[in-house]
Structure formats: structure tokens, C-alpha cells
Amino acid sequence: MDSMTIIAAVSIITAGLTIAIGSIAPAIGEGKAVANALTALAQQPDASSTITRTLFVGLAMIESVAIYCLVISMILIFANPFWNHVISQSTGN
Amino acid sequence: MRLSPDENIFWQYGFLVLNSTIVTTWVLMLIMTMGSILITRKLKVEGDITRWQGFLEIVVTTIQQQIKEVGLKNPRQYLGFIGTLFLFIAVSNVCAIIPFYEPPTGSLSTTSALALSVFVAVLYYGIAERGLVAYLKSYVKPTFIMLPFNIVSEVSRTFALAIRLFGNIMSGTMIVGILLSIVPFIAPVIMNILGLLTGMVQAYIFSILATVYIAAATRTRET
Predict the structure, then answer these.
(1) Which end of chain B is more exposed for a tag (fewer CB within 10 A), N or C?
(2) pLDDT for B87-127, tens place per residue?
(3) CB within 8 A of B69, min separation 6: which ones?
(4) Rounded to whole angstroms, how far apart are CA atoms B133 and B131?
(5) What are the chain A neighbours of B1 within 8 Å (beta carbons)?
């Protein structure tokens, strides 16, 4: 395998792994957060507005971890700097 | 595939670049400003108010209520900044139902600018509320060892604000684009509706987080 093939293969595999592994932890976290919020809502329906607001903010914070992984994998697939470097090297020569 | 509307260039002269993000942002700003000026030109206190005045009053009082609930004592002072953030992000996300429209919040430069303005506003309000020395002292609390961690958290949360908004909006548009090439009939519509919901939630989150950061910076220590 030449270096171009290696870079392409590693980028694609890493992009898949990033989003696959990186979405596990936020999924568990969001599930736990929603479950606890539902318990709290069932116990104290009066505090629903506060609980819902805190839940949404917390969910967005947790979800941003998954979003970071998505951004990384998008960069690896669509705007890969190493790949662009190799392309410019090979077309320059 | 294009990652952001930054690469859609209309006009270029030297280092001056006029891309789709700037044009859309300015059109949105123009529409919102002109609309607000037109509505608030003839405000009434008594009698039947116009529908548009009622709409704007609902928007302003709701934002004010939300700011107050987060814990800022004097919401009118922060209404201009946080309300502008929320309205701009919400309008630019909701306008995604218009064909050929690319949300300017799906570009990293727009979201970085918004996050940087939050960063500056936190410093400004913190110093204005507590004084320079007291504000700087809050960085070495509880001990001096926490100083680098506090600074890193200040910078990293600004970074996180920008990346979060960019990632959410960009992934929404990109998923619709990918789905269009796979299942071009019903699925993109559903994802677009989901994108509208995500856009509103992200606008809410962005402004609430800005409010929380400002509240944390301006809070005088109750001991």
C-alpha cells in the first residue's frame, strides 16, 4: 500500500470509529439524565418548569460531546487536511 | 461536499470576500431591524394594541422572564444582549424552511463571533458589577492553585459554545443533504422538521448558557 491508500483508509476507519465510540457515552448519559428527570417530574410536578429547563441545558451540554465527535468525523471525511496535503503534493510533482 | 456556507463566494476583491454567510446575516439583520422599527413606530399603552405589538411584547417579556429565572437580579440590563443573541440564532435557524437558504449559524465563523461576544460580555458585566479587583480575585478562588483551571475553563467553554452551535446546525443541513441523495421523498422533510426543533433548542441553549455564565460572573459572594 502506498501512503495515499493508507491515509485514505485510516481516515475513513477513524471517522467511523470516532462517531461509533463517541456516541456511546453521551447516549448513556442522556438516558440517565432523562430517566432521573422523569422521576423528579413524577415526584414534583410543580417544579416542572425548572426541571425541564435544567434538563434541556444539561442535555445540550451532554450532546455537545457527541457533536464534537460528529464534527471530527465530518472533518476526516469531507475536509481532511492530511488528504488535502497528499493531493497537493501529488499534483504539484 | 461543502461543510459551511463560507465557501459559497459571491464577490471577491483581494482579501475582501463576500460570501453567502455575510450576505444572509446582513439580510436577516436588515429584516429584523426594519421589522422592529416598523412595529415599534406607533406603540400604544391604552386601548387595543396591534397584533404585532402584542407579539413583540410576548417575545420581550418571555425573554425577560427566562433571564430572571436563571438568577440575574436586574433582567432589563441584560435584555439587549441576551435577547439579541436568542432572536438572531432563532430566526436564522427557523428560516431554514425557505428554499436555497443556508443558515449563517451553520458556519464556524458566525458561531465563533457569537461565542467571542459572549466571552467579552462575561468579562464586561463581571467587571462592571463587581469591580476589576474583585472580579480578578474570583479567578484565584478557592485557592491560588485553581487559577490555570479557571482560565482554561473560561476559554474552553467559549470554544464549546461555538462548536456546539456550529455542529448542530451543520449536521442538520448535512443530514438533509445526504438523505436527499438516498431517499429523496419523505425522509428529508421529517429531518428538516427535526432540524427546526434542534435549531430552536440550540438558540435557547445558547442564550441560557450565556445568561448562566454572566450570572456566575456577576454573582457577589453570599457568605
Answers:
(1) C
(2) 999 999 999 888 888 888 888 889 999 999 999 999 999 99
(3) A49, A50, A53
(4) 6
(5) 78
Cβ atoms of B217 and B128 within 8 Å: the answer is no
Structure confidence at residue B221 (pLDDT): 56
- Interface contact flag, A56 B167, Cβ < 8 Å: no
Q: What is the pTM of this model?
A: 0.84
In angstroms, rounded to a whole number, what is the distance separating the alpha carbons of residues B207 and A57? 10
CB contact under 8 A, A57 and B160: no
Say if CB B163 and CB A71 are below 8 A apart.
yes
Helix (H, G, I), strand (E, B) or coil at B13: strand
Q: What is the ipTM of this complex?
A: 0.72
Best mutation target, B66, B175, B208, to test chain A (most A CBs within 10 A): B208
Nearest to B154 by CA among B131, B135, B170: B135
CA distance B23 to chain A (A): 24
Spatial CA neighbour of B23 closest among B86, B104, B97: B104
Question: Distance (Å) from the C-alpha of residue A71 to the closest C-alpha of chain B?
Answer: 6
Cell of B141: 478562588
pLDDT in tens, B5-62: 777 777 777 778 888 888 889 999 999 999 999 988 888 888 788 888 889 999 999 9
Residue of B92, B97, B107 whose CA lies nearest to B193: B97
pLDDT mean over A11-30: 93
B156: cell is 474552553
Q: Which residue of B has its CA nearest to A59?
A: B205
Q: Does B164 touch chain A (CB under 8 A)?
A: yes
Residue B223 pLDDT > 60: no
B172 has a pLDDT exceeding 50: yes
**Burial of B205: CB neighbours in 10 Å, binned 0-12, 13-18, 19+:** buried
Q: How many C-beta atoms lie closer than 10 Å to residue B149's C-beta? A: 10
Beta strands in chain B (DSSP E): 9-13, 16-19
